[in-house]
Amino acid sequence: MSDAHAHSHAPATAQGHSHAHAPSGESLAGNARARRALWFALVVGLGVLVAEIVAGLVFGSLALLGDAAHMVTDVSAYAIALWAARMSMRPPSATRTFGLGRLEILAALANGATLLAASAWIAFESVRRLVDPPTVDGSGMGLVAAIGLLANVAVLAVLWRSGSSGLNVRAAMLHAGGDLLGSVAAVAAGIVITFTGFDRADPIASLALSLLIVVGAWRLVRASADVLLDAAPAGIDADRVGSSLVTVDGVLEVHDVHVWTMAPGTVAASAHVRVGIDRDPSALLDDMQSTLASDHGIRHSTLQVRADRGSERMETVPLMAVEDAVEWATDHIARLHPDMTRGVIAAAAGAAALGIAADGRVSPVAVTSRALGSLQRSAAD
Q1: For residue 7, is pLDDT > 50?
Q2: pLDDT (tens digit per residue) in 331-344
Q3: What are the boundaries of each domain within the chain?
Q4: pLDDT tens profile 241-278
Q5: What's the CA gap between 53 and 93, in Å, rounded?
Q6: Which of 33, 74, 303, 328 is the most buried (most CB within 10 A)?
Q7: Which CATH number does 31-228 carry?
Q8: What is the number of helices (H) and of strands (E) in the chain?
Q9: DSSP string spanning 261-286?
Q10: Strand-strand pairing, 266-275 and 251-263
């Protein structure tokens, strides 16, 4: 097995399918409280944006204008997230069988990208003003920044109380947190300029803000990209999922394991499973799905199952010479089906062994499975 959206390759094939369609977790589309929090953030953000643009132009403050630029990305982020949540509520269709849940991930990725772009612009302007600092009205700048600080505290508190851990709410909190830090930096710069006349405090505060925003924005972009690339969610990988499945009574082998996030809060998995013939298939599938749900929170699974007529695990039976493998398979099938003629069984096993032996040695379990398939087809004809 390998990790994110992982593949594991072991010798076996699969047939039959099991589907469990029960999305789990929490998305913005399914959390009305989180959507109300974003609407509150959107309205407050628009008010702060207008105030900071006007004050930044009147008082000549880059810190206020930079924070206003950040507020543009904030307001856009809130609006995009709300639009994506609304679209995600649409049911699946014949062409979009999983619905539009991943629009929320695209919105989170766009929000992270705008944060990075805004930070780059603020950093560039900060460096330029460090070289040639303009005159700034520190008292007016500090007053407006203090109003913005209170607004950002309110937005952050409402988002926090929504209780959502989705990427878009995380993005919104990151935006609000960046605004909060920006307001603190602008207030501090205003105080310094008012009492010392040190105009470079304004671009220094803006530069520090941009660096703080970049760290959180990069984490958001990376998390969103991982979902779009079908990476395994944090804390879950293919090895762990496969290890859980093989603990289920009746499961002999698990391979080709995939784990990914379908949409916010909905983790999915698929696997090829080789099982014994002594368990009821429906009960076995129920047990495997229950294990995925209880051990990993995976409630959407696609399991391709093959019933192995050989009752031993493939890896516990060593490769044998063709003659020995034919004898082993003949004995095993004869015990399972005493009504069959031993000569007919041996002929089928011999043909199967010759068909799959590459270097004179072959797996007796594989010979058994091939021989049984051939005998069943002959009986049907």
Answers
A1: no
A2: 888 887 888 888 88
A3: 17-22+233-307, 31-228, 315-380
A4: 888 888 888 887 788 889 988 776 778 899 888 887 77
A5: 44
A6: 74
A7: 1.20.1510.10
A8: 11, 6
A9: EEETTEEEEEEEEEE-SSS-HHHHHH
A10: antiparallel
Return the CATH number of the domain spanning residue range 17-22+233-307: 3.30.70.1350
Strand-pair category, 300-307 with 266-275: parallel
Tokens representing residue 319 in the block: 């490769």
Q: Which pair of tokens denotes residue 49?
A: 């944006």
201 contacts 133 by C-beta, under 8 angstroms: no
Q: Tell me the per-residue pLDDT of 347-360, one tens digit each, with 9 for 90 and over.
A: 888 888 887 766 67
Q: Which residues pair with 18 in a beta bridge?
A: 303
Structure tokens at 44: 């407050």
Alpha-carbon span 366 to 13, nearest angstrom: 10
Whole-number Å distance between alpha carbons of 144 and 151: 11
Residue 280, class by beta-carbon neighbours within 10 Å (0-12 exposed, 13-18 middle, 19+ buried)?
A: exposed
216: pLDDT strictly greater than 70? yes
User: Whats the size of the chain, residue-wise?
Assistant: 381
- Which residue bears the tokens 């803006």? 206
